[in-house]
Amino acid sequence: MDLSLNEEQKMIAESAAVFLQEKSSTAQARKVSETEGGLDRALWREVLDMGWCSVALPEAAGGMGLGWRELVLLQEQMGYHLACVPFFDAVVAVTPLWQALSQTEQGLGVVERLAASGRICVLGMTVRGELPTAATVKVEGDALVLNGQWSQVGSGAHADVFLLPATLPCGSLGLLEVHAREEGLSVQALTTVDATRSSADVMAVNVRLTGAAVLMHGEALRSLWAQTRNLAAIGLAAEQVGVAERALNLAVDYTKERQQFGKAVGSFQGVKHRAAQMLVKVETARSAVYAAAFMADTAGDISDLSYFAAQARTDATEAALFSTRESIQLHGGVGFTWEFDPHLFFRRAQASSQRLGTVEQWRELVAVRLLDEATEDQMAEAA
Q1: What is its EC number (predicted)?
Q2: Digit-coded pLDDT (tens) for 28-85
């Protein structure tokens, strides 16, 4: 498995870094989080204009036709620069759905209408990434009536369109397109530890929709949802790598300047060791993320992908948590103050560590799969 970047991928990563360095400083992130609810609309429009939101969309849908390796490179830079845009929720997490819908002519029309519109479309995905069980749809005349609640929907406070899973009258799972201003739909913005990203509780009370609102249904949707959770976890892990690397760089830059006993703090062996530990975790996590993205582009087996997604998610989460904590410590007394930046990345690391399942939950998932496979092998040998 060759995880080295080709020239085109290097160019994507470098251009994203240069652009976000100018447009998404920590000063800008502070301003947006304090006055605009965590959404930098000007930056979002520029991201749309640059075509980043269509990187992994098929060419038939107006996209670039690239893959998850290119997408995670952008997502990594989003984390490094703490960009206040819904790139993860409105691009990364919904890309598997757009890719699946693009395989049919009818679905292609949906993708062109929603994905290429510039509107913020987000999935009604729970914090753990599981399917909600209480949302239902019933038929009243010619209308479908939706009732249910979707808690802590990422970027929900700024969404234009929600893609909400619910149980259809026939008993199968369906995914419905619901516009944020639909009568009967309420969106309650939540106060979160990471003010650079929004979240909301979404509730539907007798929301009347047409049959065209059902974008997908049945067992195919269940399989797609499991695949979406794995792919979204890889994307989130890429962001965490960016957060971890930025925390490391903040610590290194500060310890080079901070003087104690007539020497830069960074010259002390104990400080060097802690920075080296951070670097090891960052690079280990990056390798896991790139490997997972490689598998997403080349392997179609969802079972295999779940192992890679779990590896990327756990390594990146641990790297982000460790590096942001160490960065605060290496800043000394000022590391805990509002004026310095480490806490911004610490907050993002903490919030992201709970999304799509915790490290413990991902490890449990892998353990269950491995034990089940071992049991099946033993039964096959006995037979």
Answers
A1: 1.3.8.1
A2: 999 999 988 899 999 999 999 999 999 999 888 888 989 999 999 999 999 999 999 9
Q: Give the structural domain span for 174.
A: 123-217
Cα atoms in the Cβ-side hemisphere of radius 13 Å centred on 207: 28
d(CA 326, CA 267): 17
One domain, residues 245 and 211: no
What's the rounded Cα separation, in Å, for the pair 263 and 259?
A: 5
Domain assignment of residue 94, yes or no: yes
86 to 91, 160, 267, 282, 322: CA distances (angstroms): 8, 12, 39, 24, 25
Residues 192 and 248 placed together within one structural domain of the fold: no
Tokens describing residue 53: 């939101």
- Cα 318 to Cα 330: distance, rounded to the nearest angstrom: 18
Number of domains making up the chain? 3
User: What is the pTM (predicted TM-score) of this model?
Assistant: 0.93
